[in-house]
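Reply to dn_fold:

You asked what the input looked like. This is it:
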Amino acid sequence: MSTPNPFPNLRSDNHCVTSPRTPDYNCIAWAAGETHRRWWPIAGPGWYWPPSLPKVASVDIFVEAFRLIGYEHCDSSEYEPGYEKVALYLSAGGAPTHMARQLISGAWTSKLGPQQDIEHDILGAVEGPAYGRVALFLKRPNPSFNQPTP
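and this is what came back:
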């Protein structure tokens, strides 16, 4: 019996690899803009989770973790100049599995576990057995957008 493709929608024409493989950070850290540690609420030693939050892998707790770094709910994945967005993916059972971050180009970036970072044109590119489906969006003002030039 063969193992199902974890990313059936990921094709060579809808993504590109943007970094080498590394286990130094994961998709949640990548969505938060960090590359020096891995984020997850119920992982072992060496993993980060905001200390003020319960170590529970629930939608509400993930939303609260990103509120602590300036994100708030939004209704759409559409690019909005001046904002940075993240998307939360959930398993069929409703558990958080993955996050992607929107780039200033409007494309999305994901860290595929201990593998590479990728840029993908559509959020659905990484939907499937591994990460489930996109469930909600958060946004915050993008501090690097429209910065005055020296």
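The CA atoms of residues 31 and 66 lie 9 Å apart.
Hope that clears it up.
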